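Study this:
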Amino acid sequence: NLRGADLRGADLREANLRGANLNWANLSGANLSGADLREANLRGANLREANYISPRLGLCLK
């Protein structure tokens, strides 16, 4: 449970966050490239300037 966690600028490359509760977490500036976010709860999460590239899903957030 990472609800409300302060993960600003964290290096979360290739992290297994599948099903994680990231509700209201601060992920601004975090590197989420290749992270598994399937079924993760990102409601209210701050993703400003986060870097996310998922080759599997073809998604890119910059």
In short: The first strand starts at residue 52 and ends at 54. Residues 13 and 36 are 9 Å apart (CA to CA). The mean pLDDT is 89.
